[in-house]
Amino acid sequence: MATSQVSMTVNGKKVEQLVEPRTLLIHFLREQLMLTGQHIGCDTSHCGACTVDLDGKSVKSCTMFAVQANGADIRTIEGMVNSDGTLHALQEGFREMHGLQCGFCTPGMIMRAYRLLQENPSPSEEEIRFGISGNLCRCTGYQNIVKAIQFAAAKLKGVPYQEAAE
Amino acid sequence: MSDMTPTSAERAAKLEGMGCKRKRVEDIRFTQGKGNYVDDIKLPGMLYGDFTRSPHAHARVKKIDTTKASALPGVVSVITAETLKTVNLAWMPTLAGDVQMVLADGKVLFQNQEVAFVIAEDRYTAADAAELVEVEYEALPCNVDPLKAMAKDAPVIREDIKDKKEGAHGPRKHYNHIFNWQAGNKAAADAAFAKADVTIKEMIVYPRVHPCPLETCQCVASFDKVKGELTLYGTFQAPHVIRTVGSLISKIPEHKIHVIAPDIGGGFGNKVGAYPGYICSIVASIVTGRPVKWTEDRIENLSTTAFARDFHMETEIACTRDGKILGLRCNTIADHGAFDACANATKWPAGLFSIISGSYDIPAAHVSVDGVYTNKAPGGVAYRCSFRVTEAAYAIERAMDIMAQKLGMDPADFRMKNLIRREQFPYTSAFGWVYDSGDYQTALQKAMQAVSYKKLRAEQAQRQEAFKRGETRELMGIGVVFFTEIVGAGPSRNCDILGIAMFDSAEIRIHPTGSGICRLGTKSQGQGHETTYAQIIATELGLPADNITVEEGNTDTAPYGLGTYGSRSTPVSGAATAMACRKIKAKAQMIAAYMLEVHDDDLEWDVDRFRVKGNPERFKTMTELAWAAYHEVPPGMEPGLEAVDYYDPPNFTFPFGAYVCVVDVDVDTGMIKVRRFYALDDCGTRINPMIIEGQIHGGLTEAFGIAMGQEIHYDDDGNVTTASLMDYFLPTAVETPHWETDWTTTPSPHHPIGAKGVGESPNVGGVPCFSNAVNDAFKFLGSTHIQMPHDNWRTWMAADKLGLHQ
Prior knowledge:
The structure holds 2 protein chains of 2 kinds. In chain A, strands 2-1-5-3-4 form a 5-stranded mixed β-sheet, with helices on both faces. The longest helix of chain A is centred in the C-terminal third of the chain and has 15 residues, at 143-157. By secondary structure, chain A is α+β, with helices and mostly antiparallel strands. The termini of chain A are far apart. Chain A is globular and about 60 Å long. Chain A contains 5 helices and 5 strands; from the N terminus they run ββαβββαααα. Chain A has helices at residues 25-32, 89-96, 106-119, 125-131, 143-157; strands at 4-10, 13-19, 51-54, 57-60, 73-75. Chain B is an alpha+beta fold. Chain B has 3 domains: 41-140 and 215-265 and 271-303, Aldehyde Oxidoreductase, domain 3; 308-489 and 652-801, Aldehyde Oxidoreductase, domain 4 (2-Layer Sandwich), CATH 3.30.365.10; 504-647, Aldehyde Oxidoreductase, domain 4 (2-Layer Sandwich), CATH 3.30.365. Chain B is built from 19 helices and 34 strands. In chain B, the strands form 10 sheets. In chain B, strands 3-7-1-16-13-14-15 form a 7-stranded mixed β-sheet, with helices on both faces. Chain B has a 5-stranded mixed β-sheet with strand order 11-19-18-17-12. In chain B, helix 10 (389-407) packs parallel to helix 18 (761-779), helix 15 (569-596) packs across helix 16 and helix 17 (689-708) packs across helix 18 (761-779). The longest helix of chain B has 28 residues, at 569-596. The termini of chain B are far apart. The model of chain B has no long low-confidence stretch (mean pLDDT 97). Classes of the chains: A alpha+beta, B alpha+beta. At the A-B interface, helix 1, helix 2, helix 3, helix 4 and helix 5 of A face helix 2 and helix 17 of B.
């Protein structure tokens, strides 16, 4: 099958590759760039395990062709650690608050939460729940994911995290 | 001792042993996208497999033409049942004693059944070619209703065994009948009903649902022709079972099969069984000489690999006028689909369903379960529950409410009156189970106080009056549940899978510097085993949990075990871990005695060391003893410090809990708001409270999904209408309620550390609690039982049937 040249920035690095026009972005990331952090959970855009950050938006990369991402600036979970090698506040928050179990939804959930906090640095619980409603988790029941995002929001603002009273 | 010496408590805290909210070891890699799941595996030369599937629920396969598919560039091979017959693999044995088609052999028996397996250079080409396989079908009448399966003129589902009068579990009474299984004492139960003042009878249906882990079932098979060895990576909850079954059916010697289960993205029972995709990938790798990957998509997952429930339970309770239960009966039709591929302990075709007497002191009881074939997908797995325990808990807990309603008693009072009393433990149920321990009244009282139960009922009464006056269109419902589980399968006298006793194992090696590795026969799918098993070792051996690596999932290195499902990891492998530690500790004690020049008996254990009784300043820490085990063992003792334990549990464990749910139902839209959900769990000794709480949150969310919307539904033509996430309800963060958790602790007397298992309790208790709450809302209007799932449409219909929209 004919291939097209695509070039994009992924986690700060310029990449140029040949892809089939029908190659999904998630398959391009996972199988051509070997960035296997984002996962495939449903093929119908429901689960959000494949969520990446693309030009300042959360995008489900199973519902976009790699050629559509030509010229884009993409961030995946592999690009989330801080430049000094420490965990990003969200990665730390998910661990501290037990916001993950099997880990399959986690990279997509963190990438979604990353954009959510860019758009709204101080979200309420309700805003977080709506904000991550395109990402499914089968293990945690979301309660600790909400806390993980609140933890990260506090840390990014430099204020101590305070758990809401039950 | 100087003041700077840490106290025992300080030393214990540093170990991060049992009871510590230790942060998870796994999260370091998972939060960075560095987990290693099956689809992340890419081997040199790897091919991709994909299935051609049946559009029909029941049809004769007249012809399969693979010419066009094979001609597509990039296609390496196409496999059909005819190919598989040459290696005698067109059919495979199931865990339940039945056989199952790997690829359609003459007929298809359910929609999306596997018909041909296409192997290509990449996954897109494989998918293209799967569409090019031309299959000629002749449609046959189908049946998807288990209650009609044994009708005189029902379509014959399984022609291969149509005339067989004897099945794997005894006589068959119809060509679509699989087994009849009974427990309890029918005569005694019938006598109890004959003398009862009050009886109830209700057909309680637990619909067909699917575990739907976020990662689907997948594998990579790699056959090395030179060595004659197979390496099989896969999403396996029970890797050793897969190796043994794989060897038995492929005839590859078991030592030449290497099964590796890497990180697993959730299982919930979906990943226990052996599926056609695994067999086809193995055969494809043998045929092509190259590694072959197979990954299900979500539709394939929901419609073919493993369903759960589909139990139709006619449940009866008999009572005295003042509310003392005399007897219980239940006649169940179990829909197993086209093949009996149920994942149960082999001797138990209906699993542990006879836990149906629940938490109550019921003197006489009987159950009968008939398994039947229909034109639906095979399976019958335990979706986040011990085998058929959630079905049993649902039946008894709904029936308890229905009986309380008939007696005019409060459902909590009725339960309190019939709960097994503390002094009755160990309690032998009418079905013969010996409940290990419990303090049910304390748990129920604590729950009632925590939610201010009396106030809730008073509020409900007021709101019912307001509803009758037309001031509100909302109904308030309060669900109360007291459940008892039976987990930790299991004792070898009761439980085996294909003849292999359901023990489990742990092998611990302590290294010279006081760190170590523990390998087990279980397999985490998100439960956090790498974190929690190390905590057991930390407490048992006095070595920091951080110094212990926990490894599972590689059958070459892990001791044999039966895997993780049915809440069995902690009750069985957790026990094995503690027992292996104790073997190590016994040896360490002898080394300590030698070094300190005292008798073994003169030593006592103190957190992380053996010290001389009465002279605590003379001691050897476990770290020192580990070093000594490799360089100054006593004369005659072999060096090294390691142990393996295969633990055959003396009994099951019986976790329990009291749950309360409050809902508000809008009768005009059918929408249900969960106002409050309180869950008190007693899982015995608590290893990591953070992980326990997380498991309960997750299990309650799955229970919420099941009770409020999940159903694998088939239309009359056998089309599965809920096979994508468009139609199959998985709760998002928006619908999911806030969870309140609580606990009591009643250790198991027969478990080495007193632990009982917890992961499945919230599913078992949660489903009836939601359902009871919704039913409770409508009760005062004369409604007795509304079937699950309680989605908006069905709830609106229930309201409509009660005349609330006139």
